[in-house]
DNA sequence: CTGAAAGCGCTAACAA
DNA sequence: TTGTTAGCGCTTTCAG
């Protein structure tokens, strides 16, 4: 309930100002402003009128210190510009909608030391919970999280040991299942295109699962193409041109994400290659972007929105069952063959 | 400087704990932790060692209340999933990097009442400054901003009256300049494809400028196609199919953003239409995405990153000139003809 | 260079 | 239903 046209205040107003303007004690004003039931309607109205007239905005800093409660949930992700994360954030926001909690976002740029810093900053505001992407953190970061005394939910990935709760998919399994799909379709000379490994643990795990499945079938990756920096259609084109010039005999290209995969698809279509007959393609994530192309790129849906929803529910304490304590939730990545696997 | 392996604390630690562990007064501990110079090296080391050992994380709530200073800058934008905003946020983060200030993001979903709420929530944390997308707000929202007693920077748009400072481009001018470019290229039967107007003031202003320039040339829009909801390639395709089925004679399509424009471009290419000979296309924003297509979509660069940079500099007080007070900064949108205007 | 005292603006807990 | 009294954990100010 935001206030109304304020007059000419330049020192931030306090409860005391509202108290004086309404002739009611600070304590009662405080009660009204927090929507507590134990105030008479008459008093309530007078207070609300005074607060609106003055344009009073409560000071949550003082409130939080006094009550030892903060309605903030820290959310730490690698990047805001990677199209993968907005959907997770959307899920979080939706689930927190009427819990009284508010998400606060921070980005790490895929750097462990930046993550440590972001966590430190956030925890110093004493949030009610934290949602953190990934299971890999520095020891210091893990220790901070473990000792914060609040619910911690690590998301996106479940291949590892969480500090507290986790919600995500197994990226090893996602890689494995895509490999099996590809092999079943009869492709045999398979190339992989992805980011430099150390940065992105989830892409690394997908590749591990993928490779294991190939080995189980007596195969291995025929060629690998790495890149650094952000993903883009242009990068996908470029990498695809490069790997195919070295190995024109490849019959499948597995990309570490949909953006570069879509770039590769555009390249193949422009070159008139026979997709999926002569060459198949697959990405990862299930990006909405893919719906716009003539052929739909095969991909794995990473359940991003649901991950956000479930994580936020844990933080908000909306556990359908009555169990207290940490939850480990594995969602199932879904392979979508699209039009680029025959 | 995050702490180190903590032991078994479950009640959040206070300065007092560090004070006792190090045998130094709380006051001196506080000085060390704030990196103040007036502490002897010996004392400093003891304090830091104790803090690390305990895994102490300062309580910024108490600190902010006592010092009346908060190192937060509120940033309010319509949407995190619209690819337009990450770049603005990147600029803001970069400019704030070593200012000691930290951005906090909030999204409004293009709704005035949600904006009012987000502003109210943010202001109640008494941030050091606010950066808000757009110039259109409810009266209540304007009043809150005006009375917060902190730097307010409205960004993206400069066609209107700011509460305090503003940094952006003129969308009317952007629309006008694109129209002139299109007319100079000889196109005459021009269609517009964009979102429902009331939601998006900047798209509306672009259309106004665009229409004015057409009128100045004795023309008007031949056809308009509206949509609701988010932008996507698929939506762009669909809208393009629809408008062209009604008006196959159109020779130019102006899209309100690059995402639907790119979808339209894909549609035209797939249909084998002669772009830019028989039909020209243009979007708006200068999205990196466009670099991946066979033909590069014409667009207008909205200077998003620089807007973020400049806005953050104003909030951080890094005004190159010595002037205090509000700044009005107009950046120049740059038309990029790409390959889709002949 | 270090310490002691006095709040910051609000709310929990109790009293009236 | 309303008011009073103590702090919340830190920093400011001022003394030593």
UniProtKB/TrEMBL annotation, chains A, B:
<dbReference type="InterPro" id="IPR010982">
    <property type="entry name" value="Lambda_DNA-bd_dom_sf"/>
</dbReference>
<dbReference type="Pfam" id="PF00532">
    <property type="entry name" value="Peripla_BP_1"/>
</dbReference>
<dbReference type="Pfam" id="PF00356">
    <property type="entry name" value="LacI"/>
</dbReference>
<keyword id="KW-0804">Transcription</keyword>
<dbReference type="InterPro" id="IPR000843">
    <property type="entry name" value="HTH_LacI"/>
</dbReference>
<protein>
    <submittedName>
        <fullName>LacI family transcriptional regulator</fullName>
    </submittedName>
</protein>
<keyword id="KW-0805">Transcription regulation</keyword>
<keyword id="KW-0238">DNA-binding</keyword>
<feature type="domain" description="HTH lacI-type">
    <location>
        <begin position="13"/>
        <end position="67"/>
    </location>
</feature>
<dbReference type="GO" id="GO:0000976">
    <property type="term" value="F:transcription cis-regulatory region binding"/>
</dbReference>
<dbReference type="GO" id="GO:0003700">
    <property type="term" value="F:DNA-binding transcription factor activity"/>
</dbReference>
<dbReference type="InterPro" id="IPR001761">
    <property type="entry name" value="Peripla_BP/Lac1_sug-bd_dom"/>
</dbReference>
<dbReference type="InterPro" id="IPR028082">
    <property type="entry name" value="Peripla_BP_I"/>
</dbReference>
């Amino acid at each position: 309930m935001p206030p109304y046209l304020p007059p000419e205040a330049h020192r931030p107003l306090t409860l005391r100002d509202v108290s004086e303007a309404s002739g009611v004690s600070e304590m009662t004003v405080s009660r009204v402003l927090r929507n507590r039931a134990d105030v008479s309607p008459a008093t309530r109205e007078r207070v609300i009128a005074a607060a609106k007239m003055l344009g009073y905005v409560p000071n949550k800093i003082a409130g939080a210190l006094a009550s030892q409660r903060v309605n903030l949930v820290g959310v730490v992700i690698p990047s805001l510009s990677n199209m993968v994360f907005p959907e997770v954030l959307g899920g979080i926001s939706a689930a927190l909608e009427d819990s009284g909690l508010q998400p606060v976002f921070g980005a790490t740029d895929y750097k462990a030391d930046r993550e440590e810093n972001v966590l430190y900053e956030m925890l110093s505001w004493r949030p009610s919970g934290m949602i953190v992407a990934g299971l890999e953190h520095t020891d210091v970061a893990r220790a901070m999280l473990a000792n914060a005394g609040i619910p911690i939910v690590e998301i996106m990935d479940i291949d590892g040991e969480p500090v507290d709760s986790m919600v995500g998919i197994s990226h090893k399994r996602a890689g494995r299942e895509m490999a099996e799909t590809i092999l079943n379709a009869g492709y045999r000379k398979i190339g992989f295109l992805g980011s430099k490994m150390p940065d992105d643990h989830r892409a690394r795990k997908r590749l591990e699962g993928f490779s294991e499945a190939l080995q189980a079938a007596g195969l291995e990756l025929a060629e690998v193409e790495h890149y650094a920096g952000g993903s883009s259609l242009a990068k996908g084109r470029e990498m695809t041109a490069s790997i195919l010039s070295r190995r024109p005999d490849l019959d499948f290209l597995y990309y570490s994400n949909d953006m570069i995969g879509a770039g590769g698809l555009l390249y193949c279509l422009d070159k008139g290659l026979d997709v999926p007959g002569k060459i198949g393609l697959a990405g990862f994530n299930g990006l909405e972007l893919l719906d716009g192309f003539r052929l739909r790129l095969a991909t794995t849906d990473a359940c991003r929105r649901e991950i956000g929803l479930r994580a936020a529910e844990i933080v908000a304490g909306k556990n359908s069952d009555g169990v207290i304590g940490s939850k480990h939730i594995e969602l199932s990545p879904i392979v979508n063959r699209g039009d680029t696997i025959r």
